[in-house]
Each structure stands twice: as structure tokens, then as C-alpha cells.
């Protein structure tokens, strides 16, 4: 990736965390829109290792989720994928993700964490909440079914948290998984390569249901 590092400009890096089981066009539109509006040079997609919010649920193998994320983002020169979370053992906490990215990318990088409106209000319940706002800015994007305005974010530092209306795509990974189980098509909800990867690996079918997440 082309990076301007002349000492004068800071590098604006977006961070899109998610389980990506599977990655879908809602994720991609959110990342693309935030990149355009906030003039980000790059958005790095970070598939979670063990998402602590999803303990007790079935989640696909992390390498499958990583590869789907690579397939979905490969054609966009501004998109990249990081293994920091899937390579770190234990539960995934955003504070660790941001610290690791900062250590890896250097001090002249400004991080913008992108999250859906459904998760925005609960940032303070995340582990390391006191440090989060020193590490990154947060952008909460609109999501169909979640009222962006109704989410109370008055308890979050206003200069660190922005809400952004993005083109509405009523797609969720939960719905994608359900569609596969019901034999309905995934076409046009996720990138073509992801449709084909899901079929090839038998994801979301009894043949490959992934692992049940245990708390650590
Ligand atoms: P699941 O149904 O399994 O929770 P999901 O569709 O919510 O999956 P995640 O991997 O949990 O996908 O989401 C990663 C991030 O992307 C979250 O911050 C989430 O709010 C956001 N996001 C997911 N889908 C959309 C969408 N359609 N529009 C905007 N943001 C979205
Ligand atoms: Mg979700």
C-alpha cells in the first residue's frame, strides 16, 4: 500500500473489527463510506479471534473467516486484512487490537475504529474502556433496524465519537447463515467469491457448523 510518510502528514487508518461469519456487503459499504467521509488512506479489516460477546454460540473456524475477509476485500486497494486478533490467543478485546495495530504501524498513525450503531452505545462496557479513547476515534455507522439517534451516547466523549449515516443495507451475518441453512441464495448479499467459498467449505451446514465458543 502506498503510504505518505513525510513526517508532516499523519496516516489515517480505519479499523473495521468483526466476526465476519460471513463478511457481507453491509460491512463493506460501512468501511467504504467511512473511508470516503473521513478521508482515510486505508481500512484494515480485523476478524476477531474469540468474540467474547458471542460465547456459547457457534462460530466458523477463524481461518475460514479470515479467508472470506481476504476474498471480499482483495479488489479494493484501500482495504487490507490483519491477523492480529485471530493470531492472539484468548478472548478478543478491542483495546488489545488497537494497541497491537498502533505498535505495528507506528506512532504517526491515527486510528478510526468503525462500528455499527448496534454496538456504539456499549463501548464503555468493553474491556479497557478508559484507554479506548486515547487509542482511537470511533465512528458509529447507521444500520437498518437500529435507530442511530435513539442510541444514547451522551456518556461518551463527544470529540472522540461520531455518528455517520451510511447507505442502508439490511444484511446481517446471522441472516446469511440462516439463509444457507434454509437453502436460500447468498448471491448479492455477500461478494461472489464469498458465496463460492461458503459453498466450497460447506459453511453453515451440518457438515461444517464451526465451533461452539467457550469462555476463557
Ligand atoms: P452477526 O449477525 O453474526 O452479529 P453482523 O452482521 O452483526 O453479524 P459482525 O461481524 O457482528 O456482523 O459486525 C461487525 C461490525 O459491522 C459491527 O460493528 C456491526 O455493527 C457492523 N455491521 C454489520 N452489519 C452491518 C450493516 N448491515 N450495516 C452497517 N454496519 C453493519
Ligand atoms: Mg453483530
From TrEMBL:
Source organism superkingdom: Bacteria
InterPro entries: Cyt_trans-like, NadD/NMNAT, Rossmann-like_a/b/a_fold
Catalyzed reaction equations: nicotinate beta-D-ribonucleotide + ATP + H(+) = deamido-NAD(+) + diphosphate
Signal peptide as annotated in the record: none
Pfam family, one: CTP_transf_like
Domain Cytidyltransferase-like per the UniProt entry, residue ranges: 15-179
Enzyme Commission (EC) number: 2.7.7.18
PANTHER family xrefs: NICOTINATE-NUCLEOTIDE ADENYLYLTRANSFERASE-RELATED, PHOSPHOPANTETHEINE ADENYLYLTRANSFERASE
Family, as annotated: Belongs to the NadD family.
Function noted in UniProt: Catalyzes the reversible adenylation of nicotinate mononucleotide (NaMN) to nicotinic acid adenine dinucleotide (NaAD).
Name of protein: Probable nicotinate-nucleotide adenylyltransferase
Amino acid at each position: 500500500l502506498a503510504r505518505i510518510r513525510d513526517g508532516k502528514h499523519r496516516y489515517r487508518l480505519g479499523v473495521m473489527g468483526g466476526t465476519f461469519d460471513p463478511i457481507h456487503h453491509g460491512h463493506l459499504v460501512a468501511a467504504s463510506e467511512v473511508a470516503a467521509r473521513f478521508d482515510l488512506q486505508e481500512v484494515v479489516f480485523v476478524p476477531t479471534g474469540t468474540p467474547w460477546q458471542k460465547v456459547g454460540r457457534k462460530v466458523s473456524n477463524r481461518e475460514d473467516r479470515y479467508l472470506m475477509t481476504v476474498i471480499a476485500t482483495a479488489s479494493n486497494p484501500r482495504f487490507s486484512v490483519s491477523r492480529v486478533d485471530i493470531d492472539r490467543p484468548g478472548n478478543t478485546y478491542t483495546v488489545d487490537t488497537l494497541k497491537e495495530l498502533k505498535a505495528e504501524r507506528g506512532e504517526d498513525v491515527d486510528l478510526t475504529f468503525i462500528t455499527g450503531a448496534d454496538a456504539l452505545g456499549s463501548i464503555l462496557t468493553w474491556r479497557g474502556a478508559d484507554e479506548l479513547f486515547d487509542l482511537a476515534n470511533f465512528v458509529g455507522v447507521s444500520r437498518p433496524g437500529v435507530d442511530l439517534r435513539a442510541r444514547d451516547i451522551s456518556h461518551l466523549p463527544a470529540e472522540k465519537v461520531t455518528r455517520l449515516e451510511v447507505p442502508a443495507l439490511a444484511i446481517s451475518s446471522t441472516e446469511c447463515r440462516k439463509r444457507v441453512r434454509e437453502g436460500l441464495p447468498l448471491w448479492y448479499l455477500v461478494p461472489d467469491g464469498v458465496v463460492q467459498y461458503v459453498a466450497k467449505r460447506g459453511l453453515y451446514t451440518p457438515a461444517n457448523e464451526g465451533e461452539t465458543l467457550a469462555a476463557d
